[in-house]
Specification:
Layout: H1 5-10, E1 20-26, H2 31-46, E2 50-56, H3 61-66, E3 74-79, E4 84-89, H4 94-104
Length: about 120
């Protein structure tokens, strides 16, 4: 099921500005949400083509219902055209998260090339 573009736009999601946009639905007291957010920010530091949009699920209940979010964290992975390329419900393992990012966001130039 493709997410509703109007619902996503209402949340401030603009997938056209990144290779991969991750929309994370979280709640204030969710420990796995904080851990997932921290890991995404680490990935974002080395991947300029990655954008994270954080959504407080409790403040956006209409969007939560429209997008079928039933637990936090829920992550929607959108390519540049806004197409859903993945979804995870619950905290993804760090390796799974890195694999999704690696598949859609170009890696930075290798540091080995500088010495060549």
């Amino acid at each position: 099921m493709e997410p509703d573009g109007a619902v996503l736009a209402g949340l401030g999601v603009d997938p056209g500005r990144a290779d991969l946009t991750v929309v994370q639905f979280s709640t204030a007291f969710c420990g796995p949400c904080r851990a997932t957010r921290a890991r995404l920010r680490q990935l974002q530091a080395t991947r300029p083509g990655l954008v994270l949009v954080e959504v407080d699920a409790e403040s956006h209940l209409d969007a939560v219902r429209a997008l079928g979010v039933d637990r936090t964290p829920t992550l929607l992975y959108l390519d540049r055209s806004g197409r859903l390329v993945g979804r995870s419900s619950g905290a993804p393992r760090p390796a799974e998260l890195a694999a999704v990012v690696d598949a859609h966001v170009p890696a930075p130039a290798s540091r080995v090339e500088r010495g060549a």
